[in-house]
Amino acid sequence: xxxxxxxxxxxxxxxxxxxxxxxxxxxxxxxxxxxxxxxxxxxxxxxxxxxxxxxxxxxxxxxxxxxxxxxxxxxxxxxxxxxxxxxxxxxxxxxxxxxxxxxxxxxxxxxxxxxxxxxxxxxxxxxxxxxxxxxxxxxxxxxxxxxxxxxxxxxxxxxxxxxxxxxxxxxxxxxxxxxxxxxxxxxxxxxxxxxxxxxxxxxxxxxxxxxxxxxxxxxxxxxxxxxxxxxxxxxxxxxxxxxxxxxxxxxxxxxxxxxxxxxxxxxxxxxxxxxxx
Length: 277
Hints:
Elements: H1 2-14, H2 18-48, H3 54-67, H4 74-83, E1 122-132, E2 135-144, E3 150-156, H5 161-173, E4 182-185, H6 189-192, H7 194-202, E5 207-209, H8 214-217, H9 219-231, E6 237-238, H10 241-258, H11 269-276
Parallel strand pairs: 1-4, 1-6, 4-5
Antiparallel strand pairs: 1-2, 2-3
């Protein structure tokens, strides 16, 4: 009786019927339960991919949430992330690896209309960073756009063009005679440098660069960076650069020889690259 009077008095103060009061309470309880499930699923996904953003999380988790009976829009999803402290902060001191504001020559995008049917038709180049307590390392990568194999890489202390050149030299050393892949990259100063472009021309490689939608026009290289950081721990902060260098070598080896790709019918990049070559 006391409980009913308490609820009745509260309903009177709120100006609502007892039926609406209980309906509102059930709705709040449901929203709290939904938020709890969202938090659990996001934390589980972030344990595997720590820097996965809200939009990608929403896309990945929406089917599972729907299966659990949770109907939620993207705006409300972001509200839950905010309430639970799950929105990502920009990493402090995150370096910028691409400087496209320079006076060096740039080139047109030659790969956007290429139909890739074998390895060594086109290579994609990009630079990313590896964090260590001693400072950053900059990882230059060259990937075959068809087989997805990392054909060249180099880790160095600076963003000077020499690091990208060393990665290119590694790739060229394994290039079969008579193969002339198109070299595709963003418009970073390393790839536009006279040193780099001259080496490409000296080996008969055509030069291709992004034009308007930079990240989309070099999406495969961006995707490779994400795989190495999320699946092979290169997104971690290492104790020292020696440890980071060893981790890069291991990551490249595992990626090339052990990771099956859906787009390659679950073949590894190394096997597919050798098969076609």
